[in-house]
User: What shape does this take?
Amino acid sequence: MTSSISDAPDGSGRGGRILSIEDDASVRQFVTAVLKADGYEVSGAADGNAGVTAALAQIPDLILLDLILPYASGFDVLQRLREDPRTRLIPVLVLSTQGGEDDIVRALEVGAEDFLIKPFYARELVARVRKALTRARAARP
Assistant: This one.
């Protein structure tokens, strides 16, 4: 059985499944290494359509989403995830070089939990992931 955010082995709240939807392989590898070192199970998708398919195939606890993706933009992906009852409540953290005020506000309005502008610090990523998962766990019935 795959661990969930509520059953991390050390009781820290760490653990859980994270899906990284990112077309830049080096960013996907960096995010994967950082989060695996903190106890998370991380999988990746290299384009928007593959990301939606992966999210629906194995529902993650959290999604990291780039805005600039092939085949479907991050905004399109976010909207599709929010429209599906299976993924509607999954926290989504946007990681993007597109960090203008309009992009940030639009992502938050469409349903992103948080927004990080690339480049970002590994410790900041981990802190925001932990916070989003803690909030998601607390909101469960």
About this structure: The first strand starts at residue 17 and ends at 21. The radius of gyration is 14 Å. Confidence is low (pLDDT under 50) at residues 1-13.
